[in-house]
Design a protein that fits this description.
Its EC number is 2.7.8.7. The chain is of the alpha+beta class. Helices cover 40% and strands 31% of the residues. Helix 1 packs across helix 4.
């Protein structure tokens, strides 16, 4: 079984500034995420941690942000607050084609947001 990890750390202030641009929000975040942000009062820490998770996922897959759009990756929360990915478009095709399973963990402080993604499984060589 293949196991790969990705990690990202970002300054919340950088994302808070970018949040002021509607184009940024639409380009990076899915409609489901944007709805979640609204419900959570557009908290910059939440937005930053979602951004970090997308970056960490691209690192775990080893692709960087190529071949898919960031807004095809949604980081949502279950009823207990546990984060999970909901994928669509090209990124979903990549994950399904390679039979990957994903695990994500996120955290933030007032100043920083971080995410770790583990990509495991995959096609046996």
């Amino acid at each position: 079984m293949m196991i790969q990890t990705g990690i990202d750390l970002i300054e919340v202030a950088r994302i808070a500034k970018s949040m002021q641009k509607q184009r940024f929000m639409q380009h990076v975040f899915s409609p489901q995420e944007q709805e979640m942000f609204e419900k959570r009062g557009k908290n910059p820490q939440t937005v930053a941690v979602n951004f970090a998770a997308k970056e960490a996922l691209s690192k775990a897959l080893g692709t960087g942000i190529r071949g898919f759009a960031l807004n095809e990756i949604s980081l949502l929360r279950d009823e207990f607050g546990k984060p999970y990915f909901q994928l669509s478009g090209k990124i979903l095709e990549i994950v399904q084609k390679n039979r990957y399973k994903l695990s994500v963990s996120v955290t933030h402080t007032k100043e920083y947001a971080s995410a770790v993604v583990v990509c495991y499984g995959g096609i046996e060589p």
